[in-house]
Automatic annotation (TrEMBL):
Keywords: Signal. InterPro entries: Metal_Hydrolase, Pept_M19. This is Peptidase M19. Pfam families: Peptidase_M19. It comes from Pseudoxanthomonas taiwanensis.
Length: 416
């Protein structure tokens, strides 16, 4: 199987190139790049794919198409792209911060957690839940796909922060504080400050995540939340899907000085492929109005049957043709990745492309194209060991450090 996958990767690279980064100084044989990619433990830290698990007629075992059904990750394409797994996200949009809104967020988060676990339970020959860094290595070595669970936006915990203990027992190993909009735990990068960083409840959540061994994620959070997470957390923190402010200034991106401080504290930034965070993309009022009308008419795409998904995509394509947006490319993505590597070093960088959450660019449309990143990094002069760190080693190191902090805190609590 390994040889077959490597041959497929090599063929893809040979056809899909040429790419030459600004830092590139050599050419790498596509077959050699494919062999290296297949040897690596390849993890992505932000897979929004669980949003598809409850879609009518959708299966993780089928070979889908992003153009056909808004899907970027499934088992056939994971195999083709050499993706061993990663962090599968419990995403909750920020709703009203009322008792009713908090209960809805609570219920949504628990439902999504169950859906992830049900997917794993339904396909034990292909997927396995990972509870530790060592689990990930063992699962991938057995030829199965690694399923860590993460949470994007802590709002499911707003009604009862002690639920974090139950989430951890059921597999949660990464926690993002906010999404687009402030919540009860802290400020978002996309909103005016409310707490000037973390709220008192947010600071308590940091200590509880440390106690449990859950990695803290500052993506989507404000700069002050990032600063306070870095200061308060006893374990290194991560940015699970964030790009460079120096390459394209955007509230969701991060500046070089903070990247350096993240690295100095042992953390890792995983580079996002969301087009709107890579390049300027000015949306006209006419396009926004047309898209709003389309979304209002079709509703939640997670609940659409396949024939309605096709109709939705036809209408969206027509809007794209009438009111085009600038398209980010693979070169744009590599510009962010190479800059962040130069600032942080390969021991503190990873990949979190925001698959099935809006990520993907021309030339990197879904996970089947991941070997292109390996090819580009090799041609930019990075070694196989560097790539091993970037693709999985760095996040597993942080997870091990979080596990160690939890063990130390347990010892302290018992007077050991």
């Amino acid at each position: 199987m390994k040889a077959v996958v490597a041959a497929t990767l090599a063929a893809s690279l040979a056809l899909a190139w040429p790419y030459a980064s600004e830092a590139a100084g050599k050419k790498v044989d596509p077959q050699e790049a494919a062999r290296i990619h297949e040897r690596l433990l390849v993890l992505d830290t932000h897979l929004d794919t669980p949003a598809n698990f409850a879609r009518p007629g959708w299966s993780i075992l089928d070979d889908h198409s992003h153009e056909r059904d808004l899907s970027q990750v499934d088992l056939p394409r994971m195999r083709k792209g050499g993706l061993d797994g990663g962090f599968w996200v419990i995403y909750t949009g920020q709703g009203e911060r009322t008792p009713e809104g908090n209960r809805r967020a609570r219920d949504h988060g628990l439902k999504r957690l169950v859906e992830i676990r049900e997917m794993v339970a339904a396909h034990p020959q292909h997927f396995e839940l990972a509870l530790s860094a060592d689990d990930a290595v063992r699962i991938a070595a057995a030829g199965k796909r690694v399923v860590f669970i993460s949470m994007e936006n802590a709002s499911p915990l707003a009604s009862d922060p002690t639920l974090l203990t139950a989430y951890h027992a059921l597999g949660l190993r990464m926690l993002g504080i906010t999404h687009i909009g402030n919540n009860d735990f802290g400020d978002s990068a996309n909103s005016a400050p409310e707490w000037n960083g973390l709220s008192p409840a947010g600071k308590a959540l940091v200590a509880e995540a440390n106690r449990l061994g859950i990695v803290l994620d500052a993506s989507h959070a404000s700069d002050l939340v990032f600063d306070q997470l870095l200061e308060l957390s006893r374990a290194p923190i991560v940015l699970s899907h964030t790009s460079s402010d120096a390459v394209y200034e955007h509230p969701r991106n991060i500046d070089d000085e903070r990247i350096r401080r993240l690295a100095a504290k042992g953390g890792v930034i995983h580079v996002n492929a969301y087009p709107g965070y890579l390049i300027p993309r000015e949306e006209s009022p006419e396009r926004k109005r047309a898209m709003d009308e389309l979304e209002a008419r079709f509703g939640d795409y997670e609940k659409l049957p396949p024939e309605q998904v096709a109709a939705y995509l036809r209408e969206r394509d027509a809007i794209d043709a009438r009111y085009p947006l600038a398209q980010a490319t693979f070169e744009d993505y590599m510009r962010h990745l190479l800059h962040i590597l130069e600032v942080a070093g390969p021991e503190h960088v990873g990949i979190g492309a925001d698959w099935d959450g809006g990520g993907g660019v021309q030339g990197l449309e879904d996970v089947s194209a991941l070997p292109r990143i390996t090819q580009a990094l090799l041609e930019a002069g990075y070694s196989e060991q560097d790539l091993a760190n970037i693709w999985g080693g760095n996040i597993l190191r942080v997870l091990r450090q979080a596990e160690q902090v939890a063990a130390q805190m347990a010892e302290e609590a018992t007077g050991g």
